[in-house]
Amino acid sequence: MEFLRHRALVLRGLWTLPNDVQLVAQAKTLCGDCIKWRLSRTGTTFNASSQSSAPSYKSSRILAEASCVLLLFAQELEAMFPDLFHNVDRKLQILALAELEVSEALHAFATLLFYEQQVTWGRVVALFMVAANLAEVCVAHGCPALIHTIVDCIGVIFLKTVLPWVKAQGGWSDMVRTLDCRKRPIGLCWLLGSLATILGLIVLPHCAEKMY
Q: Which residues, in sequence order, are CB contacts of 138 under 8 Å at separation 6+?
C-alpha cells in the first residue's frame, strides 16, 4: 500500500523527485558513505567534497534512510561472502593505481554489471561496494587521493547508465523498501545469493576484461 501511495503522489505532482544533478550528487554521497564505512576499519577519514547544493529536508531524510539500508545490506553481503571483494584491484586487472587505470576498470566493471540495461538495486549496491573496496586498496597502497577519482567515476557511471532506472523507480525510497534487511530478512536471502553469483562471475580474475 505504501508503494502505491508513493506512486500516486508522484503522479499527482504532490511529491517530486530531485533533479538529475541532485540525484547524481546523492549517488556520489551514498558511494562516499560506503567508502567511509570501509575505511573506518583503518581509521582513515574521507570527505566527499564534490557535492551539489544541499537537498531539501525530505530528500535528506530519504537519503539518510537509503544510506542506512545500503550499509546494512553491504554488511549482510560481506558477512555471507567474506572473500567476494578480496584483492578487488587484482580481480579488476588494475596493474597500477593511477587515475586512468582506476577509472577504466570501474567503467569496465559497470559495463558488465549493467549489461543490456539490467539494473537492479542489488547491482547498484554492488557498484558502490566495489568502489568502496577499491578505495580501501588505494588507501592501503598510499594513494588516498584516488578516492575522489573513484567517487567522480561512480557519478559518471550513474549518470550514463543508472539514473533513468532510478528515476523510473521513484528514487532512493524504493531502494529502502526493496533492500531493508530489518523488514524483509528472509526474502533477502535469495537476493543476496543472486547478487553474490553475479559479482562472483564478474570479479573473478580475467573475467572483468577492460573494454577500451
A: 97, 102, 144, 146, 147, 150
Query: Which of 35, 23, 9, 25 has its CA nearest to residue 137?
Result: 35
Residue-wise pLDDT tens digits, 189-206: 666 666 666 666 565 544
Q: Which of 125, 166, 140, 146 minimizes the C-alpha distance to 24?
A: 166
Q: Please give the distance of CA 140 from its chain centroid, rounded to a whole number.
A: 21
**179: confidence class by pLDDT, cuts 50, 70, 90:** confident
Give the number of other Cβ atoms within 10 Å of residue 152's Cβ: 16
d(CA 67, CA 162): 17
Alpha carbons 80 and 87: distance in angstroms, whole number: 17
Please name each of the domains of the chain with its CATH number: 17-45+65-203 (1.10.437.10)
Phi/psi for 35 (5° steps) reads: -65, -45
Whether residue 110 contacts residue 134, with contact meaning beta carbons closer than 8 Å, is answered with no
Judged against a pLDDT cut of 60, whether residue 170 lies above it is answered with: yes
Distance CA 151, CA 128 (A): 9
Residue 19: how many other CB atoms lie within 10 Å: 11
Whole-structure pTM value: 0.81
